[in-house]
Design brief:
Largest sheet: 7 strands, antiparallel
Order of helices and strands: EEHEEEEEEHE
Strand content: 25-35%
Number of domains: 1
Distance between the termini: 27 Å
Shape: globular
Helix content: 10-25%
């Protein structure tokens, strides 16, 4: 697994501790606002934002499909169309696509060990940008 974080050198064979630390250090502003974890087949999970405003996507290299994570607790404070602003740009989000950083850590660690994703995570086609 290769861990890439905006503004930092990539880490080959990243450990779970390195992955968790890197994800928890993200902020939607500043030097590091997105990260990805890529496996040997080219599939990856990526996050944009940080702390309480994270978006997660999964790319399946074999199917060439990108999916966005969602959950069953839409944010009343962030209605559909709210924009996530981070280092690589601006993304319109749906109210059920906002994740907390600890949830993102769980998603990344599941991907790292090829385990099932947490039960609260669903996947739908990522919007075309």
């Amino acid at each position: 697994m290769k861990l890439d974080v905006e503004g930092k050198a990539g880490v080959s064979n990243a450990t779970p501790a390195q992955i968790a630390r890197a994800i928890r250090s993200l902020k939607s502003y500043g030097r590091s606002s997105y990260a990805s974890l890529t496996n040997e087949s080219g599939s990856y999970v990526q996050v944009a934002g940080g702390v309480v405003s994270c978006m997660v996507e999964l790319f399946d290299a074999s199917a060439e499909v990108c999916s966005r994570a969602f959950h069953d607790k839409p944010s009343a404070a962030r209605p559909d169309g709210t924009i996530l602003v981070f280092g690589a740009g601006n993304l319109p989000m749906r109210s059920d696509e906002w994740f907390m950083v600890n949830q993102v850590v769980e998603i990344f660690l599941a991907f790292c060990v090829s385990a099932p994703f947490p039960s609260y995570v669903g996947w739908r086609p990522a919007p075309k940008l």
